[in-house]
Each structure stands twice: as C-alpha cells, then as structure tokens.
C-alpha cells in the first residue's frame, strides 16, 4: 500500500489518535509518577511491560491499526539486545505496545525536550543518547552497563539510528552490536512488517491497516570479536533486507 496519498479519513483518524496519545500521557503521567514514588522505582518493569501496552491500545485502535505479534522461536529470550527496523512514526506506538519483559529503550537525546517524555523516560530508566556522535553514543551506552547487568534488563535499539534513511533498510550503526558484545547478551531481531507502507518517514499521518512484529530467533554473540563485528552486522542486515522482500539495497 502506498503512502503517497492520504485520504480525508486518514487525516481525521490520525489527528484523533495524536490528540488521544497526548491526552493519555497527561492522564497517566501523574499516576505513573505516584506509583514509582510509592514503590521507590521498583514498578518500572511493571509500567513498561503492562501499563505502556495498555496506553497504546486505544491509540492504535483510533488510528485504524491492527497490531499483531508473531514469535518465530518460542518464548522470548531475556535478557537480550533487541533490534528493530525503523522507518515510521508508528514504531513508537508498536514498540510500547510490545510489552517486552524488563525492557529499556535507547532513544535519541532530543526526546527529552518534551517534558512528559523526559519525566517518564528518566523515572523508568530509559536510555537517551546523542546518536549523531557515534563515539559519544557508545560512551553513554557503556555508562549504563552496570545497571543493565545488575538488574538483568534487556535493551531495545534501532541499528538504523533514525527512521529517515536511504533505502528500505538503512545502514546499520555499530552501537547495538557492540553493546551485545560487551554485555555478552544475545541479539534478538524484530522485524516490523507493514509500518513503512502505512506511514513512511517522519509523517504523523497514517493509513489504517495491519502492522506485524516478527520476533525472530536469538543470535548468539559468544564467538564475536571486535575484528569480526562488521561481518556479523552485515549478515544480520542482510536478514532484514530478505524479510523486507529485497535482495539488495533499494531506495
């Protein structure tokens, strides 16, 4: 389905969904803050695993999006570094709707400019990085290793870095793979099918339709080294190209 032409209905549903998203944030934020204070922060996992998906359900429904999850390898492997393809603003909704156990999201630094995202993100232990500076981003990630290992947390990252990139699957940055290598965590690839077709790039307008999260088999990194890291990254990106239905880079 092409995203080149949006109907009046698409615009109407999307505007309603965007408004509902921020209304839900405004309503839930004080409740989440109270829960975190009462539990001294121990409710963070409950919020990410159960409250966030609950918040996203009415937004997806209003958008006309049916969200489906398919597991291709039995139970979810945790802790792990989860990676996704990132090409749509819908990814924010579907990531939160997944409700993965003990997950923390690596997000761009600019998200903190929104006071609600700043409060919820910081208090639930999300990770913000300055992704335009690779060396600085890796240093910021390394500072979180102790907390991640100590609490047996999983991490979610987008190797493409940004939803605005050339091709169907953009170039992969090293951050998620270096993190998996350093932590000794397996990598679990998740491929979002349908999000690009419904809402490409930075558009807040979306068509109605189905988005499916394909959670694939965990990838063992125990034999990875810094010397062979690039080869493994290329191989994993080739899987995403195959799942996207292209054998090579296509803009």
From TrEMBL:
It holds the Pfam family Acyltransferase. The keyword Transferase applies. One of its GO terms (biological process) is phosphatidic acid biosynthetic process. The chain crosses the membrane at residues 15-38. GO terms for molecular function: 1-acylglycerol-3-phosphate O-acyltransferase activity. Residues 80-195 form the Phospholipid/glycerol acyltransferase domain. SMART domains: PlsC. InterPro entries: Plipid/glycerol_acylTrfase (IPR002123). Keywords: Acyltransferase, Membrane, Transferase, Transmembrane, Transmembrane helix. Pathway: Lipid metabolism. PANTHER family: 1-ACYL-SN-GLYCEROL-3-PHOSPHATE ACYLTRANSFERASE. This is 1-acyl-sn-glycerol-3-phosphate acyltransferases. It comes from Fodinibius sediminis. The lineage of its organism: Bacteria, Pseudomonadati, Balneolota, Balneolia, Balneolales.
